[in-house]
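Structure ticket #2291
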Amino acid sequence: MSTAESAKQFYESELKDRLEADHPDQFVAIEPLSKAYFLGDSFISAAMSAKSAYPDRKSFVLRIGHAAAFHLGASST
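Resolution: structure written out below.
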């Protein structure tokens, strides 16, 4: 299983309800081997916290309460 798949599975099964209630719109970086997670107000702050704690491991960043970390393009009204 890939880093992204493992992180998403951990988020859905263990973190989603709590984080969406308490930390909407923040970012969470998940290091799936340790099941450690790091919150941040920005993508980069969450990612750098994970990188500092586990410099030799890959982490995956999600935006709490959103289907994607970033939305590209314009929307119509």
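Closing remark: The beta strands are 27-31, 36-40, 60-63.
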